[in-house]
Amino acid sequence: MVKPILSVKELYLYYRVRAGLVKAVDGASLDLYNEESLAVIGESGSGKSSLAKALLRLLPRNIYRFDGNVYIDGEDVMKLSDKDFDSRIRWNKISMVPQASMNALNPVIKIGEQLAEPLIIHKGMNKNEALDKAREMLKFVGIPQEFIDRYPFELSGGMRQRVVIAMALITQPSIVILDEPTSALDVLTQANIMNLLKRIKNDRKVSYIFITHDIALSSELSDKVAVMYAGHIVEYSYADKFYREPQHPYSQLLLSSVPTLRENRNIRFIPGEPPSLLNPPPGCRFHPRCPYAMDICRKEEPPIIDMERNSYVRCWLYAKR
Amino acid sequence: MQRGKETEFCNPNAILCIRDLYVWHPIKKFLVISGYVRALDGVSFDLERGKILAIVGESGSGKTTLGKTILRIYKPTKGRIIYDNKDVTFLKGKEIKWYRREIGYVQQDPYGALPPFMNIRQILEEPLIIHGIKKDERMHRIREVLEEVKLIPVEDFINKYPHMLSGGQQQRVVIARALVLRPKLIIADEPVSMLDASVRIEILTLFRELQKRHNISIIYITHDLSTAKYFSDKVAVMYAGHIVEMAQTEYLLTKPLHPYTQALIKAIPDPDPANRFSFKEIPPGEPPSLLNPPPGCRFHPRCPYAMDICRKEEPPTLIVDGDHIVKCWLYG
Known about the structure:
A: 321 residues; alpha/beta; four-stranded antiparallel sheet; 12 strands; B: 332 residues; Rossmann fold; 24% strand; disordered N terminus
């Protein structure tokens, strides 16, 4: 059987803040296979960006709990020291296109030098080799090679985004985390960047974790979908099933709140507000907004219920009793 | 399709008539004007009473400038703004106070729009004081408007400060503030783009209800055609300071004429698992600089159908099929 390239089992990430504990990622499990794209969707504060940061170990200081198992190519990287993780895993095997990547570039360093930097640091190349590689990479993402000597402010938003994507790919990692890669871009630029990301996936054989709050956009780049709500993955499913037959009541309501351009349907909103991660409701975290809430949902946290093809849903409705 | 003709003058049913509006922001270098940002370049439209007009465009298309110019926050360079058959284009000082009372403004970022040191009652009372509403009526109006935006029970919210509310509730306060003077027209500039998906529809539904209940006219400024589809009667598409197409929402979406509108519609995905296999044909490039826009049609460098004339002459605004307006040489 094919082994997943990334396998996450029961990952926890809690932050300590003055008001208490923030349970940002609360027992997340998922598998990512080679050349597969997993869309992680959720509203703000659902823990999706924290999940990305936990996988790359880019963590702030106020960590209260960070444990679980993360296997990359079969190796449990949670056991590695920070130094080993930095030299062997980060950017060599897993890289990231950060949110608001327009601002992720250093304004006083030329594009080419910024692009070459990961190669010099993580691959031990000399500067000329690295710059050659940077030139090649710029061409690949559709930027003329003479831009190598330009500064970020001389590029448009879409071009800067392409540079950041080139930077995430330049060390040839097998996994790239895309954290809202198009959220600050215009509609047409966004569509062009999505085309580029699909082409890269086909040509370079990479796997994506695509984090987004835009449900319609998530379908552009998802073989699998993980829906996050208040720190939990509440549904983990396949795209061909998820967009047609979502299982969890939250997923169902979320999909029915998406305005569609081509299809005519009634759109509805989800009453209430997402819960605070500081003080989530007892039992199922979605129960105060759930139309099917039962007694047990208010008291006990729902278990992970396995469905076909290794998908799962965290909901009492599907529990066999 | 009938041959196009030039657009005609004001519509008597319109609450707002914009005619040939220009807003050029001067760029100053050492006190000398070195150029102009041509944010709005000859925009005309009518807004009918009790209707929602969506103004759709990308960043830098001039949609926010248009909203702020109608509110008279920006000064028009030339053109006319006619509100309720009165010319408000160049009103100044005290003359404009009545106009400010008739139009409400809903900003994009609700947290930034609310003063953090005032509670909800103070926030809603301020416009009432400025416009001289008597003290005993103020509390009544505040309660009424909070109920209207469904911040109920009112007692739970009235003494709270903005930071104590969620994003959706903050946006309701902003809407309540826009409504408290009982305006006839509301300008909502990206009112939901900072909110989560599940809350967005709730806020937009609220706008629809207000429009129906009070016959308020709304200008809904957005970059998102898919919400415009559900929450507008008419759509105007802007590109680089021009309205390039305007029609009833249904017609615009099913029969888009301008190549830019066609590209926009093509670019927006619906949630469909088949999307992951398909590539979209989208014009490359970025919107032009408004400092130095391209000659002729401003979309021509990106347009798949660009002809010779598009590179030289600005296309006229043509009327095709009733009230479907398009600014493109393909239909000239």
